Amino acid sequence: MRVIDFRDASCRHCYKCVRNCEVKAISVENEQAHIMKDHCINCGHCLEVCPQNAKTFASDMDHVKGYLKQGMKVIISIAPSYLGVLEYDRPGQVVDALKRLGFYEVRETAEGAALVTAEYGKLLLEGQMTNIITTCCPSVNDLIEKYYPSLVSMMAPVVSPMVAHGRLIKSIYGEDVKVVFLGPCIAKKEEAIGDERVRGAIDAILTFEEITRWWAAEGIDIHHCDDLPVGNPSPRVNQLYPISGGVIQSVAAGTEGDPYYKVHIDGLKSCMELFTELEKGEIKNCFFEVNVCEGGCIKGPASDKWQQSQVRAKMDIEKQVLHREEAEGIDGRSLNLHKVFIDRHVVDKQPSEQEMQAVLHAMGKYTKEDELNCGACGYATCRAKAAAVFQKKAEIGMCLPYALAQAESMSNIVMDVTPSMIMIIGKDMRIWECNKKAMEMLGVSREEALERYIFEFIDDSDIAEVLATKEQIIHKKLSLDTVKLKVVETIIYIDSLESVLVTYQDITKEEKAKEQHYNLKMETVEMAQKVIDKQMMVAQEIAGLLGETTAETKVTLSKLRDSILFEEEE
Protein backbone atom coordinates (compact mmCIF):
# COMPACT_ATOMS: atom_id res chain seq x y z
CA MET A 1 0.00 0.00 0.00
CA ARG A 2 1.31 3.44 -0.94
CA VAL A 3 0.20 5.99 1.67
CA ILE A 4 1.38 9.13 -0.12
CA ASP A 5 2.59 10.04 -3.62
CA PHE A 6 2.40 12.79 -6.23
CA ARG A 7 -0.18 12.94 -8.99
CA ASP A 8 1.01 13.98 -12.44
CA ALA A 9 2.17 17.58 -12.43
CA SER A 10 4.59 19.87 -14.22
CA CYS A 11 7.72 18.99 -12.22
CA ARG A 12 10.20 20.18 -14.83
CA HIS A 13 12.95 22.38 -13.36
CA CYS A 14 11.18 22.53 -9.97
CA TYR A 15 12.46 19.67 -7.77
CA LYS A 16 11.42 21.48 -4.60
CA CYS A 17 10.26 18.18 -3.14
CA VAL A 18 13.67 16.60 -3.84
CA ARG A 19 15.46 19.52 -2.21
CA ASN A 20 13.29 19.23 0.91
CA CYS A 21 13.51 15.45 1.23
CA GLU A 22 16.41 14.84 3.61
CA VAL A 23 16.46 11.09 2.91
CA LYS A 24 16.16 11.52 -0.87
CA ALA A 25 13.20 9.16 -1.16
CA ILE A 26 11.89 10.85 -4.31
CA SER A 27 12.69 9.68 -7.80
CA VAL A 28 12.15 11.68 -10.98
CA GLU A 29 11.28 9.88 -14.19
CA ASN A 30 10.15 11.57 -17.40
CA GLU A 31 10.10 14.88 -15.49
CA GLN A 32 7.56 13.50 -12.97
CA ALA A 33 8.29 13.09 -9.26
CA HIS A 34 7.39 9.85 -7.45
CA ILE A 35 7.88 8.73 -3.86
CA MET A 36 9.94 5.55 -3.40
CA LYS A 37 8.02 3.60 -0.77
CA ASP A 38 10.99 1.54 0.42
CA HIS A 39 13.03 4.73 1.03
CA CYS A 40 10.23 6.95 2.37
CA ILE A 41 9.68 7.65 6.08
CA ASN A 42 6.24 9.23 5.44
CA CYS A 43 7.08 12.55 7.08
CA GLY A 44 4.93 14.35 4.49
CA HIS A 45 7.26 17.34 4.16
CA CYS A 46 7.48 16.92 0.39
CA LEU A 47 3.71 17.25 0.13
CA GLU A 48 3.75 20.40 2.24
CA VAL A 49 6.30 22.16 0.03
CA CYS A 50 4.95 21.06 -3.37
CA PRO A 51 4.00 24.36 -5.10
CA GLN A 52 1.37 22.61 -7.22
CA ASN A 53 -0.30 20.83 -4.28
CA ALA A 54 0.11 17.62 -6.28
CA LYS A 55 -0.18 15.32 -3.26
CA THR A 56 -2.20 12.12 -3.09
CA PHE A 57 -3.09 10.51 0.23
CA ALA A 58 -4.63 7.06 0.69
CA SER A 59 -7.71 8.18 2.62
CA ASP A 60 -9.72 5.89 4.92
CA MET A 61 -12.78 8.13 4.75
CA ASP A 62 -14.85 5.62 2.77
CA HIS A 63 -13.93 2.81 5.18
CA VAL A 64 -14.99 4.87 8.18
CA LYS A 65 -18.28 5.91 6.59
CA GLY A 66 -18.83 2.25 5.70
CA TYR A 67 -18.37 1.20 9.34
CA LEU A 68 -20.92 3.78 10.47
CA LYS A 69 -23.38 2.90 7.71
CA GLN A 70 -23.30 -0.75 8.78
CA GLY A 71 -24.10 0.23 12.35
CA MET A 72 -20.76 -0.84 13.78
CA LYS A 73 -19.55 0.52 17.10
CA VAL A 74 -16.84 3.01 16.04
CA ILE A 75 -14.70 4.83 18.58
CA ILE A 76 -12.48 7.83 17.88
CA SER A 77 -8.97 8.05 19.35
CA ILE A 78 -8.25 11.75 19.03
CA ALA A 79 -4.67 13.00 19.23
CA PRO A 80 -4.14 15.60 21.99
CA SER A 81 -2.84 18.07 19.40
CA TYR A 82 -6.52 18.87 18.68
CA LEU A 83 -6.34 21.19 21.70
CA GLY A 84 -4.03 23.51 19.77
CA VAL A 85 -5.08 22.82 16.17
CA LEU A 86 -8.86 22.67 15.80
CA GLU A 87 -11.02 25.76 16.24
CA TYR A 88 -13.70 25.64 18.94
CA ASP A 89 -15.05 27.60 21.90
CA ARG A 90 -14.86 24.71 24.37
CA PRO A 91 -13.01 21.37 23.89
CA GLY A 92 -16.17 19.37 24.49
CA GLN A 93 -17.68 20.81 21.26
CA VAL A 94 -15.23 18.66 19.31
CA VAL A 95 -16.65 15.60 21.06
CA ASP A 96 -20.21 16.55 20.17
CA ALA A 97 -19.29 17.33 16.55
CA LEU A 98 -17.75 13.87 16.19
CA LYS A 99 -20.71 12.13 17.80
CA ARG A 100 -23.07 13.92 15.40
CA LEU A 101 -21.24 12.12 12.60
CA GLY A 102 -22.22 8.82 14.23
CA PHE A 103 -19.22 7.86 16.34
CA TYR A 104 -20.09 5.87 19.46
CA GLU A 105 -17.45 7.38 21.73
CA VAL A 106 -14.55 9.85 21.66
CA ARG A 107 -11.46 9.13 23.73
CA GLU A 108 -8.12 10.98 23.86
CA THR A 109 -5.01 9.27 22.52
CA ALA A 110 -3.24 10.86 25.51
CA GLU A 111 -4.82 8.00 27.43
CA GLY A 112 -2.54 5.65 25.47
CA ALA A 113 0.32 8.11 26.00
CA ALA A 114 -0.08 7.60 29.76
CA LEU A 115 0.56 3.88 29.25
CA VAL A 116 3.62 4.62 27.11
CA THR A 117 4.87 7.07 29.74
CA ALA A 118 4.72 4.30 32.34
CA GLU A 119 6.79 2.02 30.08
CA TYR A 120 9.36 4.75 29.49
CA GLY A 121 9.52 5.29 33.25
CA LYS A 122 10.39 1.64 33.78
CA LEU A 123 13.24 1.84 31.25
CA LEU A 124 14.60 5.00 32.88
CA LEU A 125 14.56 3.52 36.37
CA GLU A 126 16.09 0.24 35.20
CA GLY A 127 18.98 2.16 33.64
CA GLN A 128 20.04 -0.77 31.43
CA MET A 129 20.08 1.01 28.02
CA THR A 130 23.10 3.06 26.90
CA ASN A 131 20.75 5.71 25.50
CA ILE A 132 16.97 5.74 25.10
CA ILE A 133 15.30 7.11 21.96
CA THR A 134 11.54 7.60 22.18
CA THR A 135 9.47 5.65 19.64
CA CYS A 136 6.27 7.71 19.57
CA CYS A 137 6.94 9.18 16.10
CA PRO A 138 6.57 6.56 13.33
CA SER A 139 8.66 8.67 10.93
CA VAL A 140 11.55 8.67 13.40
CA ASN A 141 11.19 4.91 13.78
CA ASP A 142 11.37 4.46 9.99
CA LEU A 143 14.33 6.83 9.82
CA ILE A 144 16.37 4.80 12.30
CA GLU A 145 15.42 1.37 10.97
CA LYS A 146 16.12 2.36 7.34
CA TYR A 147 19.03 4.80 7.61
CA TYR A 148 20.62 4.39 11.07
CA PRO A 149 20.09 0.67 11.80
CA SER A 150 23.06 0.57 14.19
CA LEU A 151 20.92 2.60 16.62
CA VAL A 152 18.03 0.13 16.77
CA SER A 153 19.24 -1.12 20.15
CA MET A 154 18.73 2.40 21.54
CA MET A 155 15.08 2.59 20.50
CA ALA A 156 12.66 2.24 23.39
CA PRO A 157 10.99 -1.16 22.77
CA VAL A 158 7.55 0.34 23.29
CA VAL A 159 4.60 0.84 20.92
CA SER A 160 3.38 4.35 20.10
CA PRO A 161 0.60 6.05 22.09
CA MET A 162 -1.79 5.47 19.15
CA VAL A 163 -1.21 1.71 19.13
CA ALA A 164 -1.33 1.51 22.93
CA HIS A 165 -4.63 3.38 22.91
CA GLY A 166 -6.12 1.20 20.19
CA ARG A 167 -5.31 -1.91 22.18
CA LEU A 168 -6.69 -0.34 25.37
CA ILE A 169 -9.97 0.61 23.66
CA LYS A 170 -10.44 -2.92 22.27
CA SER A 171 -9.71 -4.40 25.68
CA ILE A 172 -12.51 -2.22 27.13
CA TYR A 173 -15.16 -2.41 24.39
CA GLY A 174 -14.35 -5.73 22.78
CA GLU A 175 -12.26 -6.85 19.80
CA ASP A 176 -15.12 -6.29 17.35
CA VAL A 177 -15.14 -2.52 17.96
CA LYS A 178 -13.65 -0.32 15.25
CA VAL A 179 -11.02 2.20 16.38
CA VAL A 180 -10.36 5.27 14.22
CA PHE A 181 -7.34 7.46 15.00
CA LEU A 182 -7.86 11.18 14.34
CA GLY A 183 -4.77 13.38 14.20
CA PRO A 184 -2.35 15.58 12.24
CA CYS A 185 0.04 12.82 11.13
CA ILE A 186 0.35 11.11 7.74
CA ALA A 187 2.89 8.54 8.94
CA LYS A 188 0.34 7.05 11.36
CA LYS A 189 -1.42 5.51 8.36
CA GLU A 190 1.64 3.47 7.42
CA GLU A 191 2.21 2.51 11.05
CA ALA A 192 -1.37 1.35 11.63
CA ILE A 193 -1.92 -0.52 8.37
CA GLY A 194 1.54 -1.20 6.95
CA ASP A 195 3.43 -2.40 10.05
CA GLU A 196 2.64 -6.06 10.74
CA ARG A 197 4.11 -5.78 14.25
CA VAL A 198 1.22 -3.58 15.44
CA ARG A 199 -1.50 -4.32 12.88
CA GLY A 200 -5.01 -4.70 14.31
CA ALA A 201 -4.81 -2.04 17.02
CA ILE A 202 -6.16 0.72 14.75
CA ASP A 203 -8.68 0.08 11.96
CA ALA A 204 -8.57 3.42 10.14
CA ILE A 205 -6.89 6.81 10.13
CA LEU A 206 -8.47 10.24 9.62
CA THR A 207 -6.62 13.55 9.56
CA PHE A 208 -7.81 16.86 10.99
CA GLU A 209 -8.00 18.11 7.42
CA GLU A 210 -10.39 15.32 6.45
CA ILE A 211 -12.62 15.64 9.53
CA THR A 212 -13.00 19.38 9.01
CA ARG A 213 -14.13 18.82 5.41
CA TRP A 214 -16.57 16.15 6.61
CA TRP A 215 -18.12 18.51 9.17
CA ALA A 216 -18.54 21.15 6.48
CA ALA A 217 -20.18 18.64 4.11
CA GLU A 218 -22.65 17.62 6.84
CA GLY A 219 -23.39 21.22 7.80
CA ILE A 220 -21.97 20.80 11.31
CA ASP A 221 -20.81 24.08 12.87
CA ILE A 222 -18.53 23.18 15.76
CA HIS A 223 -19.23 26.51 17.47
CA HIS A 224 -22.91 25.54 17.76
CA CYS A 225 -22.19 22.11 19.24
CA ASP A 226 -22.68 21.13 22.89
CA ASP A 227 -19.83 20.81 25.37
CA LEU A 228 -19.64 17.06 25.96
CA PRO A 229 -17.00 15.18 27.99
CA VAL A 230 -14.54 12.72 26.48
CA GLY A 231 -15.03 9.07 27.40
CA ASN A 232 -11.76 8.60 29.27
CA PRO A 233 -10.21 9.62 32.61
CA SER A 234 -8.03 12.72 32.41
CA PRO A 235 -4.58 11.89 30.99
CA ARG A 236 -3.35 15.06 32.69
CA VAL A 237 0.33 15.70 31.91
CA ASN A 238 0.24 13.23 29.00
CA GLN A 239 -1.79 15.72 27.00
CA LEU A 240 1.53 17.52 26.48
CA TYR A 241 2.88 14.78 24.18
CA PRO A 242 2.28 16.75 20.93
CA ILE A 243 4.48 19.72 21.90
CA SER A 244 8.27 19.95 22.12
CA GLY A 245 9.44 18.47 25.41
CA GLY A 246 5.98 17.10 26.19
CA VAL A 247 7.15 13.50 26.52
CA ILE A 248 9.98 14.53 28.84
CA GLN A 249 7.58 16.52 31.03
CA SER A 250 5.27 13.52 31.23
CA VAL A 251 8.05 11.08 32.06
CA ALA A 252 9.73 13.39 34.58
CA ALA A 253 6.63 13.41 36.75
CA GLY A 254 7.32 9.83 37.94
CA THR A 255 11.03 9.16 37.40
CA GLU A 256 12.91 11.40 39.77
CA GLY A 257 16.46 10.26 40.34
CA ASP A 258 16.91 8.26 37.13
CA PRO A 259 20.43 8.35 35.62
CA TYR A 260 19.52 9.79 32.20
CA TYR A 261 20.06 13.32 30.89
CA LYS A 262 16.92 14.33 28.97
CA VAL A 263 16.98 16.15 25.61
CA HIS A 264 14.18 16.87 23.12
CA ILE A 265 14.98 17.15 19.39
CA ASP A 266 12.53 18.39 16.72
CA GLY A 267 12.86 18.49 12.95
CA LEU A 268 14.12 15.86 10.54
CA LYS A 269 17.48 17.50 9.90
CA SER A 270 18.15 17.87 13.64
CA CYS A 271 17.18 14.25 14.21
CA MET A 272 19.62 13.11 11.52
CA GLU A 273 22.39 15.20 13.07
CA LEU A 274 21.69 13.58 16.44
CA PHE A 275 21.71 10.05 15.01
CA THR A 276 24.97 10.72 13.19
CA GLU A 277 26.51 11.74 16.51
CA LEU A 278 25.07 8.70 18.27
CA GLU A 279 26.64 6.42 15.64
CA LYS A 280 30.05 7.63 16.82
CA GLY A 281 29.34 6.07 20.22
CA GLU A 282 30.50 9.09 22.20
CA ILE A 283 27.16 10.02 23.80
CA LYS A 284 25.84 7.94 26.71
CA ASN A 285 23.12 7.97 29.38
CA CYS A 286 20.70 10.25 27.55
CA PHE A 287 16.95 10.08 27.06
CA PHE A 288 16.10 11.60 23.66
CA GLU A 289 12.58 12.77 22.86
CA VAL A 290 12.64 12.94 19.05
CA ASN A 291 10.06 14.16 16.56
CA VAL A 292 10.40 14.63 12.80
CA CYS A 293 8.06 17.63 12.75
CA GLU A 294 9.52 20.89 14.01
CA GLY A 295 7.55 21.98 17.07
CA GLY A 296 6.16 18.49 17.60
CA CYS A 297 2.90 16.94 16.40
CA ILE A 298 1.13 20.30 16.51
CA LYS A 299 2.98 21.06 13.27
CA GLY A 300 2.12 17.77 11.60
CA PRO A 301 1.59 17.85 7.81
CA ALA A 302 -2.18 17.49 8.22
CA SER A 303 -2.54 20.32 10.74
CA ASP A 304 -0.72 23.49 9.71
CA LYS A 305 -3.49 24.70 7.37
CA TRP A 306 -5.38 25.60 10.54
CA GLN A 307 -2.63 26.58 12.91
CA GLN A 308 0.23 28.47 11.28
CA SER A 309 1.68 29.63 14.60
CA GLN A 310 3.60 26.94 16.45
CA VAL A 311 3.91 29.22 19.48
CA ARG A 312 0.17 29.84 19.69
CA ALA A 313 -0.67 26.14 19.37
CA LYS A 314 1.85 25.28 22.10
CA MET A 315 0.42 27.93 24.40
CA ASP A 316 -3.17 26.80 23.74
CA ILE A 317 -2.33 23.25 24.75
CA GLU A 318 -0.28 24.17 27.83
CA LYS A 319 -3.07 26.45 29.09
CA GLN A 320 -5.63 23.65 28.85
CA VAL A 321 -3.48 20.96 30.51
CA LEU A 322 -4.28 22.08 34.02
CA HIS A 323 -2.90 19.06 35.85
CA ARG A 324 0.79 18.35 35.43
CA GLU A 325 0.77 15.31 37.69
CA GLU A 326 0.61 11.69 36.59
CA ALA A 327 -2.58 10.27 35.12
CA GLU A 328 -4.79 8.15 37.31
CA GLY A 329 -7.42 5.53 36.54
CA ILE A 330 -5.81 4.35 33.30
CA ASP A 331 -4.92 0.68 33.61
CA GLY A 332 -3.07 -1.11 30.83
CA ARG A 333 -1.37 -3.85 32.83
CA SER A 334 -2.99 -6.58 30.75
CA LEU A 335 -1.87 -5.07 27.44
CA ASN A 336 1.18 -6.01 25.41
CA LEU A 337 2.99 -2.72 24.85
CA HIS A 338 6.29 -4.25 23.75
CA LYS A 339 7.63 -3.73 20.22
CA VAL A 340 10.79 -5.09 18.66
CA PHE A 341 12.53 -2.73 16.25
CA ILE A 342 14.67 -4.20 13.49
CA ASP A 343 17.28 -3.37 10.87
CA ARG A 344 15.46 -2.46 7.64
CA HIS A 345 18.29 -0.48 6.10
CA VAL A 346 18.00 0.66 2.50
CA VAL A 347 20.79 -0.43 0.16
CA ASP A 348 21.40 1.45 -3.10
CA LYS A 349 23.98 0.22 -5.59
CA GLN A 350 26.86 2.65 -5.74
CA PRO A 351 28.56 3.50 -9.05
CA SER A 352 32.21 2.72 -9.67
CA GLU A 353 34.49 5.69 -10.33
CA GLN A 354 34.36 4.91 -14.05
CA GLU A 355 30.56 4.82 -13.98
CA MET A 356 30.51 8.00 -11.91
CA GLN A 357 32.72 9.79 -14.44
CA ALA A 358 30.51 8.62 -17.32
CA VAL A 359 27.45 10.22 -15.69
CA LEU A 360 29.35 13.38 -14.77
CA HIS A 361 30.54 13.75 -18.36
CA ALA A 362 26.97 13.29 -19.61
CA MET A 363 26.03 16.17 -17.28
CA GLY A 364 28.76 18.34 -18.80
CA LYS A 365 31.05 17.95 -15.78
CA TYR A 366 34.57 17.19 -17.05
CA THR A 367 36.68 18.81 -14.33
CA LYS A 368 36.34 19.57 -10.62
CA GLU A 369 35.69 23.19 -11.55
CA ASP A 370 32.63 22.07 -13.54
CA GLU A 371 31.14 20.51 -10.38
CA LEU A 372 29.32 23.58 -9.06
CA ASN A 373 27.49 21.73 -6.25
CA CYS A 374 24.72 24.35 -6.44
CA GLY A 375 22.04 22.04 -5.03
CA ALA A 376 19.34 23.26 -7.43
CA CYS A 377 18.59 19.68 -8.47
CA GLY A 378 17.92 18.70 -4.84
CA TYR A 379 21.23 16.95 -4.22
CA ALA A 380 24.00 18.53 -2.16
CA THR A 381 26.78 17.76 -4.65
CA CYS A 382 27.14 16.96 -8.34
CA ARG A 383 28.57 13.57 -7.43
CA ALA A 384 25.54 12.78 -5.25
CA LYS A 385 23.32 13.75 -8.18
CA ALA A 386 25.40 11.58 -10.53
CA ALA A 387 24.99 8.63 -8.15
CA ALA A 388 21.23 9.23 -8.13
CA VAL A 389 21.22 9.22 -11.95
CA PHE A 390 23.14 5.93 -11.91
CA GLN A 391 20.55 4.53 -9.47
CA LYS A 392 17.75 5.74 -11.76
CA LYS A 393 16.40 8.08 -9.08
CA ALA A 394 17.21 11.23 -11.03
CA GLU A 395 17.56 12.45 -14.61
CA ILE A 396 20.48 14.25 -16.20
CA GLY A 397 18.18 17.12 -17.21
CA MET A 398 17.57 17.91 -13.52
CA CYS A 399 20.96 19.67 -13.49
CA LEU A 400 19.89 23.27 -14.06
CA PRO A 401 23.34 24.60 -15.06
CA TYR A 402 23.52 21.76 -17.59
CA ALA A 403 19.98 22.43 -18.86
CA LEU A 404 20.73 26.16 -19.10
CA ALA A 405 23.98 25.51 -20.95
CA GLN A 406 22.14 23.19 -23.33
CA ALA A 407 19.43 25.77 -23.93
CA GLU A 408 21.98 28.52 -24.49
CA SER A 409 23.97 26.27 -26.79
CA MET A 410 20.91 25.43 -28.89
CA SER A 411 19.87 29.07 -28.91
CA ASN A 412 23.31 30.11 -30.09
CA ILE A 413 23.29 27.48 -32.83
CA VAL A 414 19.91 28.67 -34.08
CA MET A 415 21.07 32.28 -34.03
CA ASP A 416 24.36 31.53 -35.78
CA VAL A 417 22.97 29.38 -38.60
CA THR A 418 20.11 31.77 -39.36
CA PRO A 419 20.90 33.49 -42.71
CA SER A 420 19.18 36.70 -41.66
CA MET A 421 20.64 39.58 -39.67
CA ILE A 422 19.14 39.51 -36.16
CA MET A 423 19.63 42.21 -33.54
CA ILE A 424 18.09 43.45 -30.32
CA ILE A 425 18.15 47.23 -30.11
CA GLY A 426 17.54 49.08 -26.85
CA LYS A 427 15.48 52.24 -26.48
CA ASP A 428 18.74 54.23 -26.52
CA MET A 429 19.51 52.73 -29.96
CA ARG A 430 22.42 50.73 -28.55
CA ILE A 431 22.92 47.24 -29.96
CA TRP A 432 22.18 44.81 -27.12
CA GLU A 433 22.68 41.58 -29.01
CA CYS A 434 23.37 40.39 -32.54
CA ASN A 435 23.94 37.14 -34.38
CA LYS A 436 26.83 36.00 -36.55
CA LYS A 437 25.16 37.17 -39.79
CA ALA A 438 24.68 40.66 -38.35
CA MET A 439 28.35 40.83 -37.46
CA GLU A 440 29.27 39.85 -41.02
CA MET A 441 26.93 42.42 -42.57
CA LEU A 442 28.07 45.22 -40.27
CA GLY A 443 31.70 44.19 -40.54
CA VAL A 444 32.36 44.17 -36.77
CA SER A 445 32.99 41.66 -33.98
CA ARG A 446 30.30 40.96 -31.36
CA GLU A 447 32.27 42.82 -28.68
CA GLU A 448 32.55 45.89 -30.90
CA ALA A 449 28.91 45.71 -32.00
CA LEU A 450 27.68 45.70 -28.39
CA GLU A 451 29.52 48.94 -27.72
CA ARG A 452 27.98 50.82 -30.63
CA TYR A 453 24.67 52.27 -31.78
CA ILE A 454 22.61 51.03 -34.72
CA PHE A 455 22.51 54.47 -36.36
CA GLU A 456 26.27 54.22 -36.84
CA PHE A 457 25.64 51.53 -39.43
CA ILE A 458 22.21 51.99 -41.01
CA ASP A 459 19.22 54.32 -41.18
CA ASP A 460 17.38 53.90 -37.86
CA SER A 461 14.15 55.74 -38.70
CA ASP A 462 11.99 52.60 -38.77
CA ILE A 463 13.50 51.36 -35.49
CA ALA A 464 12.84 54.72 -33.85
CA GLU A 465 9.24 54.62 -35.07
CA VAL A 466 8.58 51.16 -33.57
CA LEU A 467 10.21 52.13 -30.27
CA ALA A 468 7.97 55.19 -30.14
CA THR A 469 4.68 53.65 -31.30
CA LYS A 470 5.20 49.98 -30.27
CA GLU A 471 3.59 49.09 -33.60
CA GLN A 472 5.48 46.35 -35.40
CA ILE A 473 6.73 46.48 -38.98
CA ILE A 474 6.41 43.24 -40.92
CA HIS A 475 8.14 42.31 -44.21
CA LYS A 476 8.99 45.75 -45.46
CA LYS A 477 11.36 45.87 -48.47
CA LEU A 478 14.04 48.49 -48.42
CA SER A 479 17.65 49.23 -49.36
CA LEU A 480 20.40 49.56 -46.78
CA ASP A 481 22.62 51.80 -48.83
CA THR A 482 25.39 52.04 -46.23
CA VAL A 483 25.97 48.29 -46.39
CA LYS A 484 24.86 48.03 -50.05
CA LEU A 485 22.13 45.50 -49.36
CA LYS A 486 18.49 45.05 -50.28
CA VAL A 487 16.57 43.49 -47.39
CA VAL A 488 13.17 42.56 -46.01
CA GLU A 489 12.82 44.33 -42.68
CA THR A 490 10.82 43.10 -39.65
CA ILE A 491 10.81 45.01 -36.36
CA ILE A 492 8.97 43.67 -33.27
CA TYR A 493 8.59 45.61 -30.01
CA ILE A 494 9.59 43.70 -26.84
CA ASP A 495 7.52 45.22 -24.07
CA SER A 496 9.28 43.49 -21.16
CA LEU A 497 12.69 44.78 -22.30
CA GLU A 498 11.59 48.12 -23.78
CA SER A 499 13.56 47.17 -26.86
CA VAL A 500 12.99 45.85 -30.37
CA LEU A 501 13.89 42.68 -32.21
CA VAL A 502 15.12 43.61 -35.67
CA THR A 503 15.62 41.14 -38.52
CA TYR A 504 16.93 41.93 -41.97
CA GLN A 505 16.58 39.18 -44.53
CA ASP A 506 19.16 39.71 -47.24
CA ILE A 507 17.41 39.62 -50.62
CA THR A 508 20.18 41.31 -52.62
CA LYS A 509 20.84 38.25 -54.79
CA GLU A 510 17.16 37.60 -55.30
CA GLU A 511 16.53 41.22 -56.30
CA LYS A 512 19.51 41.14 -58.66
CA ALA A 513 18.25 37.91 -60.19
CA LYS A 514 14.81 39.49 -60.61
CA GLU A 515 16.37 42.48 -62.33
CA GLN A 516 18.37 40.25 -64.66
CA HIS A 517 15.29 38.22 -65.41
CA TYR A 518 13.34 41.41 -66.18
CA ASN A 519 16.08 42.72 -68.49
CA LEU A 520 16.22 39.37 -70.27
CA LYS A 521 12.46 39.46 -70.70
CA MET A 522 12.57 42.97 -72.13
CA GLU A 523 15.35 42.00 -74.54
CA THR A 524 13.30 39.02 -75.67
CA VAL A 525 10.25 41.22 -76.20
CA GLU A 526 12.33 43.67 -78.22
CA MET A 527 13.74 40.93 -80.43
CA ALA A 528 10.29 39.46 -80.94
CA GLN A 529 8.96 42.87 -81.96
CA LYS A 530 11.77 43.27 -84.51
CA VAL A 531 10.98 39.87 -86.02
CA ILE A 532 7.31 40.77 -86.20
CA ASP A 533 8.07 44.08 -87.90
CA LYS A 534 10.38 42.39 -90.43
CA GLN A 535 7.82 39.72 -91.17
CA MET A 536 5.22 42.40 -91.77
CA MET A 537 7.49 44.18 -94.24
CA VAL A 538 8.22 40.94 -96.12
CA ALA A 539 4.55 40.13 -96.19
CA GLN A 540 3.75 43.54 -97.54
CA GLU A 541 6.46 43.25 -100.26
CA ILE A 542 5.22 39.81 -101.25
CA ALA A 543 1.72 41.13 -101.32
CA GLY A 544 2.77 43.98 -103.59
CA LEU A 545 4.53 41.67 -106.03
CA LEU A 546 1.64 39.27 -106.01
CA GLY A 547 -0.73 42.16 -106.74
CA GLU A 548 1.19 43.30 -109.88
CA THR A 549 1.51 39.76 -111.21
CA THR A 550 -2.16 39.10 -110.68
CA ALA A 551 -3.13 42.26 -112.59
CA GLU A 552 -0.93 41.38 -115.55
CA THR A 553 -2.27 37.87 -115.65
CA LYS A 554 -5.79 39.19 -115.57
CA VAL A 555 -5.15 41.53 -118.56
CA THR A 556 -3.44 38.82 -120.63
CA LEU A 557 -6.16 36.24 -120.02
CA SER A 558 -8.85 38.80 -120.76
CA LYS A 559 -7.22 39.59 -124.07
CA LEU A 560 -6.90 35.86 -124.90
CA ARG A 561 -10.59 35.35 -124.13
CA ASP A 562 -11.67 38.30 -126.24
CA SER A 563 -9.57 37.18 -129.19
CA ILE A 564 -11.12 33.73 -129.12
CA LEU A 565 -14.64 35.13 -128.95
CA PHE A 566 -14.11 37.56 -131.77
CA GLU A 567 -12.62 34.85 -134.02
CA GLU A 568 -15.80 32.74 -133.73
CA GLU A 569 -18.02 35.69 -134.72
CA GLU A 570 -16.10 36.28 -137.89
Sheet with the most strands, sense and barrel status: 5 strands, antiparallel
Total beta-strand segments: 16
Whole-number tally of structural domains: 3
Q: Total helix count?
A: 20
* Oligomeric description of these chains: single chain
Distance between the termini: 143 Å
Mean pLDDT: 87
Strand fraction band?
5-15%
What is the share of helical residues? 40-55%
Silhouette: elongated
Report the uncertain regions.
Answer: none
State Rg.
Answer: 44 Å
Q: Give, in spatial order, the strands making up the sheet with the most strands.
A: 13-12-16-15-14
Q: Helix/strand-derived class? A: alpha/beta
Can you tell me about this structure?
By secondary structure, the chain is α/β, with parallel strands linked by helices. It folds into three domains: 59-320, no CATH class; 353-406, no CATH class; 418-506, Beta-Lactamase, CATH 3.30.450. Helix content is 42%, strand content 15%. It has helices spanning 16-20, 45-49, 61-69, 82-85, 92-100, 110-126, 138-147, 161-173, 187-194, 208-218, 246-252, 268-279, 310-320, 353-362, 382-390, 400-417, 436-442, 446-449, 461-469, 508-569, and strands at residues 4-6, 26-29, 32-35, 55-57, 74-78, 105-108, 132-133, 178-183, 204-207, 261-266, 286-291, 421-426, 431-434, 473-480, 485-494, 499-506. The chain has a five-stranded antiparallel β-sheet with strand order 13-12-16-15-14, with helices on both faces. The protein has a four-stranded parallel β-sheet with strand order 6-5-8-9, sandwiched between helices. Strands 7-11-10 form a three-stranded parallel β-sheet, covered by helices on one side. The longest helix is centred in the last third of the chain and has 62 residues, at 508-569. The model has no long low-confidence stretch (mean pLDDT 87).
